[in-house]
Task: structure prediction
Amino acid sequence: MIDPGRTLEVLAPVLSQLRRGIEKEGLRVRPDGKLSATPHPVALGAALTHPRITTDFSESQLELITAVHTDADNCLRELAELHRFVYRNIGDEIVWAASMPCALPRESEIPIAQYGRSNVAQAKTVYRTGLSHRYGRRMQLISGIHYNFSLPDAVWPVAGLGDANSGYMALIRNFRRHAWLLLYLFGASPAVCACFVEGRSHSLRQLSADALFLPYATSLRMGRIGYLGKAQEALAVSCNDLESYAASLEAGLTKIHPAYEAIGVRDGTGYRQLATTLLQIENEYYATIRPKRIIHTGERPLHALRQRGIQYVEVRVMDVDPFARVGITADTARFLDVFLLHCLTSASPPDTPEEIRANSRNAQLVAERGREPGLRLRQGARRVGMRAWARRLLAECAPMARALDGACGGHAHAAALDAAHKSLEDPASLPSARVLAAIRNDYRGSWFAFALAQSRQHAAAMRSEPISTQAAARLETLARESVEEQRRLEEADTVPFETYLRQYLALESIAA
Result:
């Protein structure tokens, strides 16, 4: 039985060494807000091998990755530094300041990311081609903030939380139970461009000629029109232990799905997808949080987890904050640290398929109706008021905030928790409500005009701020080195792509 007070007492000496890193996605767009059709800029380096600047689904979709930091402010400083460097190398383009995409061209005109001629590069592009056939290119242009969190390795033997694998899995189970709270507090996508759902059935309402919304939505990105793969619902991925998780994913990686089988793998001499299974590879599983391990070149993520265990967790529910220049604030990062510590140190009973479904339903309800007065969620066999449950969770987080402030100095974590309390009691102050208010009051109902204005404002600020000589030199060096590393990978390939792919996708590649 976990004793949160005792666990915090043991953790106190190392709380200043909590580690976090941020991955921030954002579309490159033209000055008029339309999606850029240009390749990933050469000056930013090779997307395949650059450790800090890469692409996600599209050539136009930047992904900026910070190093691991033991201080939230330093992490945000590096993220700002990466933005400044990008802005000095993308001409007059700007980075879209919202999770939901800009004005989009036809599906076929959205460029899929390219990574070069090496086998690993070709596999990455084929995987994305498969995503385009399975879900559509527009859906893949949704952007978000991924927050990576870990504790020092030395903590686990003395904290009463088991080993790292069991401790992180306990955290993940509690996170899935309570992730709806983050959607409520930080969701910032209550509206979308009408072009995003063109040709699709939906329940959105008309906000203006170019915008659709739901009146109480917090994060449409995490709702039914966003990252929701119906085919994946049958997986019910268990997080009771690492092997249960791995077995659940393995089922998705080996089970043929009829709809994907109909797509086929080959298209003449080219590829339409990597495989016809429910998941092409592990990364296709759209989870709110994932256990992660840094992988070796060409290694499968599931093999890395089974062989070497969980290294950190990746939080995937956070919208890009359109009011923050880099998409997230230090206060939000500090709240996430408090919240994740609460998930780690609280009792975490085993999950069940029924609870997993209820957790998903709660998250979807808050994503689409979170600010609705009187909204109720499922908690075990009961239905409870969302705000009452949120109050209890925030109250339970208070010891974690105090412990973090004691370790780091100051009162920043308590202030972040206090801000969450105030947001809970004043829904009009939530990012989702502020977005809708700005759209209605300042932009005549145009979501696109609002997002473009925020993007231009952040771009101007980033371009006006100097980047340090050291940072610029370091990032220029990384860009050059990444290009050279891509060339080495291409020259080192010794087998045809078909052989590489067969070996990579073999069942043995995901075994322990």
Remarks:
- The radius of gyration is 22 Å.
- Residues 4-510 form a domain with the Creatine Kinase; Chain A, domain 2 fold (CATH 3.30.590.20).
- The first helix runs from residue 4 to 11.
- Residues 106 and 333 are 36 Å apart (CA to CA).
